[in-house]
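Figure S4 source data
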Amino acid sequence: MSVRVVVAGDHQLVLEAFAETLNGTNGLDVVGLATTYEAVLPAVERHRPTVLLLGEPTMGGKALRAATDVRAQHPKCGVALMVGAATPAVVDRAVAAGALGIVPKNARLPQLITTLMGVAGGCLTVDPALMRPPTAGESALSVREMDVLRLTAGGATVKEIAGELYLAAGTVRNLTSAAIKKLGGRNRFDAARIASEHGWL
């Protein structure tokens, strides 16, 4: 079964060329394009993609908002983000917005395809170059990830955490997945335990 992709960015010609490259590659099927922030959600509603691929520096600076909108209204659609500046802060913001995949714009095509396939499978797929180990005494977690783990440690469900933090349940799951990956936990409760032992909660 093919992975249905909607690609969003600022330039129609670039998107069309991009779609042509991706179409039919490793079972990818580009089913729609969106060139404005306002067009993203309607495109997702119309085409029901498996993955939305967003250009982070584009769309008038509203790409992260578009990711949050899509994850809130269409939680079955995974979001992958192409980023220009490869920094841990960008990764934190992207994951908090609901992105499961983050890939730098200078990545090669196989890396992008791997990211899209990972997101389609519901996996957090981040280029290791975008992750940096924390320095001594520094938390490896974003503020939001610590908030989620703190509530997890108290026994809260994903739905309860979403309500407490005013986030979509899908965003909570993304933050939890990111924290588990960073800490090497077996599950969300194990990640909360590890973070607590490091004094981060």
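Figure S5 source data
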Amino acid sequence: MQEHARSNPAGTSEAIIADALGRGPDMQLGSKQDGWQLCRWRQFVGSYTVPALPEPLYTMHIAGQQHNRTWLNGGWSEHVSIPGCATIVPAGQQTGWLVDGELDVVTLSVSSEQLFRAPAQDQFRQMRFAFSDPLGAALTRQVLSELYAPQSTEREVYIGALVNALKAHILRGANSMTSQDIPTASFSSYRIHHVMNAILQNPEAEHSLEEMSSVAGLTPSHFCRVFRKATGLSPHQYVMKTRLDKAQQMLHQSDMSIAMIAESLGFTSQSHFTRAFRHFSGEAPSDFRKRNRN
């Protein structure tokens, strides 16, 4: 395994991304033997067009801005990426990105030879934007924590094993299980995925801690610890961020009154919604709507 921060060879996915962003990765490591390249990218703001990449790319959103979008069907996506979400970019497809603030993501590219032998190779043939992947997030965070530990032979071996585990996870089909496949007797990271998807699909629902921990098959305190480790957020923060992401979309794209938006997203009152929105975005809902429409 090699760890460095130098430029990538011309023509690689990493070199194309670095050219589009105007900066290289903060950290990079790779293994020719195991056929992967992992990079950490941080602190880039704006809108970008990334040319088609030679290899499919798995991206894990680790931290930073909560409202990142991709260009779909002639406009910026309504769906947004938040920490804990993964994206798969297929080879040969130009993509567009809108980053409204500092961002922290990790990318993993795997050689085509290995992808062609993967059980879930079809998932790399089309764009999959911002799907929840708790196991991928947990493995990625563990890799990053080890990268800042004191250097040693054991550390190098462990990091390589972690990245190979992440590679195996995505090759077998990240986020491929359905709710019917989830075991009911013992804890599985896919239960956390099930909870996250339920929140993303219905942010206005109550999503009480007791209900979510029951779905995960854990005590509330243990569920909070596991959820934060997977997403970087507490369950309450995740629910609130998801609601406010949806609120920004509604303020920008609809003519609903602020009171109606607050009610539709499960806030107890318009004032509660306004306080939460101001804390989240730094401005009142009315100011956000006016600024975006101008």
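The chain has two domains: 2-171, 179-294. DSSP finds eleven helices and eleven strands in the chain.
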